[in-house]
Design brief:
CATH superfamily: Peptide deformylase
Number of strands: 7
Order of helices and strands: HEEEEEEEHHH
Helix content: 25-40%
Bound molecules: zinc ion
Largest sheet: 5 strands, antiparallel
Structural class: alpha+beta
Oligomer: single chain
Shape: globular
Length: 177
Amino acid sequence: MPDEYPEKLEFCYWGNPILRKKAVTVENPDSEDTAEFIRKMRKKLDEHDGLGLAANQVGCDRRVCLIAFPEKGGFSEIQPLINPKIIESGDEIERKEEGCLSFPGLYCEIDRPKSIKVTAYFPGEGEKTFEAFDILARIICHEVDHLNGILFIDHLSQMRRSLIKKELRQIADKYGK
Ligand SMILES: [Zn+2]
């Protein structure tokens, strides 16, 4: 089965139901269609200047995400991950501020594991298993959540979530459809 990708990518914000949809497995990770979709995603990520982007954020329900891998002095390398899966999470949890391109201007302290083990298909290279720590682990957890229809605000307690109700409504009013 060929993978289906949208012709034109539209950025999707809080309030758009696609953000709640669980993305489906990419069947042909090295196809030209997949490569073309990744090129378009990279353009969107560049425009929005983020550290990660999941396909549902640009209106596509395939399991593709882009991750900024930290390098010395910054985040120079953007790595596409296809069908990523977190296969292990460390016990140590860290609470840090997080944002999301689909929630402009909203930042929340979110608990994430400090270390994870990930399996993903790297285009042109095949499937790899690797460990990620700290900020990289956080970015990957955030993007894999997206592919499962989970948003960063879902990790907040009911009490903390109620504190950002107004901001959420403002984002949905301004950007949602
Ligand atoms: Zn996000």
